[in-house]
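Table 4 source record.
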Amino acid sequence: MGCCETQRNNTCCSTSCGCEEQNYEAEKKKIIIDFMYLDLSICTRCQGTEDSIEEAIEDVAKVLELAGAEVVVNKIHIDSKEKAIQYRFESSPTIRINGKDIQLEMRESLCESCGDLCGDEVDCRVWVYRGKEYNVPPKAMIIDAILREVYSDKKAQLNDRVGKEAYQLPENLRRFFESIEKNKKCE
């Protein structure tokens, strides 16, 4: 059997033909991380979440490489009601991995940074991990979510609620964007 025939059968064992490298690249699993936030210039929760994502990816990089997974991070600034609706944004900050929010339970608390930004009281996401609440998601929580996705069986996955229910802009976000617009008009 020639190299091309064995490559079609995924049975090439030669290290000199490069087939295994081509097959490896073709089999890479994509891990898409959508990091959605209201502000990275002032909000300490959004800034901390960005740092946690970067650190988590760095810490798990070798495992991802060995598992044949590639991570793509999309940083999405939710700067309008329209964008919030488009992305079905529920709270800031949000991390979705392959479309699934890593925090299923929605909890929020007063976020002074975002309040300063818009001139009104705003609640932002609180992360719950192993029974404790955090203003910034722990690295371990993000790593757990990434690895769950890397090693998940696609057929056995539960449907995520994103996109399944009718979306309504949360009251908290509506107030935030209205306050931002009001402040722009006053400038």
